[in-house]
Amino acid sequence: MPETSRSAAFRDEITEAFDLDPDHARIVDQAARILDELDLMESAIAQHGAIVQGRYGPQINPALEQADKHRKTFMALLKSLNLPRETHAEIVDMTEAAASKARSDAARKAALARWGNR
User: Fold this and answer.
1) pLDDT class for 93, splitting at 50, 70, 90?
2) What's the pTM?
3) How far separated are the first and last CA of the chain, in Å rounded?
4) Is residue 37 within 8 Å of 77, Cβ to Cβ?
5) What is the per-residue pLDDT across 23-81, written as a single tens digit (0 to 9) for each?
C-alpha cells in the first residue's frame, strides 16, 4: 500500500523530533500504516456515502465502523509512544487537518466522477 501524505507527515514529524529506539520505530511504522488504511476508508466513505445499499436494503457503510476502530487504534499506538503532551496534541491536530483535506479531495473527486463538469 502506498504511503499517504498524512502518514508521511506523521512519520516525518515523529522521526525528526525524537530519536526512536527500534521498538518505538516499529510503533511509528504501524501507526503510519493505520493512517494509510484510514485514508482508504475515508475515501470510500466520501465516494459511497454513509449509507450504502446492503443485502436487505440501505445500511450504514461498514467503512464507518472500521474507520472508528482505526482511529482508536491509532490513538492507542500514539499513546504507547509516551510522547510529551504538547507533541501528542500537535500530531493529532496535524493528522486531523490532513484527514480533512484528504476527505475533501476524495469527495470532490467522487462528485466529479458522479456528476462530471455540469
Assistant:
1) low
2) 0.72
3) 34
4) no
5) 999 999 999 999 999 989 988 998 998 899 999 999 999 999 999 999 999 989 988 98
The H-or-E segment that residue 51 falls in is strand 51-54
Is 54 strand, coil or helix? Answer: strand
Amino acid at position 4, single letter:
T
Smallest CA-to-CA distance from 38 within 17, 79, 10 is with 10
Q: Are 70 and 37 in contact (CB under 8 A)?
A: yes
* 52: enclosing H helix or E strand: strand 51-54
Which residue carries 492507542 as its cell?
Answer: 76
Question: Cα(67)–Cα(12) distance, rounded to whole angstroms?
Answer: 23
Determine contact, residues 32/7, Cβ cutoff 8 Å: yes
CA dist 98 and 114 (Å) reads 24
pLDDT at 83: 80
